[in-house]
Amino acid sequence: MDATSSKNESPSRKAGEGKKSFYSRKAGEDPHLKAYVHTLSPIQSSSKSNIKYFDFKLQTSDEGSVRMVCYSPEKRMKLQQHFKNKSPVKIQGTKRSKTKENEYSISKAAKIAPSTVAFSYNDIVASQLSTVQECFNARHYDKVDMEARVILKSEKKQPVIYQGKTKYKVDCLIADATESIKIALWEDGIDKVSTSKNYRFRNLMVRIFDDNKYLNTNKGTIIEEIADIDDINLSSPTLKDNIVKAKCIGVEIKKSWSCLVCNCT
Questions:
Q1: Residue 127 domain-assigned (yes or no)
Q2: Contacts for 12-19 with beta carbons within 8 Å, 24 or more apart?
Q3: This protein's superkingdom (predicted)?
Q4: CA nearest 143: which of 32, 61, 54?
Q5: Domain end (from 54, 85, 114)
Q6: Domain enclosing residue 149, as ranges
Q7: Cα–Cα distance list, 96 to 107, 146, 152, 166 (Å)
Q8: Using the 8-state DSSP alphabet, how is residue 49 labeled?
Q9: Pairwise CA distance, residues 199 & 215, whole Å
């Protein structure tokens, strides 16, 4: 009996012995992640509280990545070194999100150390661009990168009281080949865009108001002017509500002479 029992149990134990899984036995927790650090954001404050945090992308394979969120600002210094040097890092003590796919948080007790990986640093991971249509399909608070043209930009800055301080924002309408969407430019981002020009936006946040999705800039948002984008979709319902089509029936031109020295007419 004992011998038979031992034989039956042995394969079961051997199957489990030494088997290393990406996930630990505790639901949602991982023993460690080995990867490269991309798009390391500045330290920010949560919109719902004053909790400090930062986030970044972690390249976990040749082309794969996950989003990491850390609520321990002091850990950013160690990650900054690996981000700058493009060297792999090992993070032990991460927790997988229960509600968001491919998102993890770093615990206060997490350990960060140099590591080695079997794949190379890939710049493309940091610039996985989304289309406007994909932004509409994204979840609330998702971070996205995209290229689009500014179709409309409000001329007036709107004052908003936030945590006792006055901040300013300007609403824009941007579009690409798929759709158009509103983007709220905050503070420093306001003067970085102009109507009819094309930009690459990095680290925008998807927000929802009155069941309508829009994009928000933040302290970690990077805005770069780029060359013209082809095939802008000008027939989307959002654009139709904001663009007036008309026929030009005349142009008035005035001509006058002036002195090149004193500018007198």
A1: no
A2: none
A3: Eukaryota
A4: 54
A5: 114
A6: 132-236
A7: 11, 26, 39, 36
A8: S
A9: 14
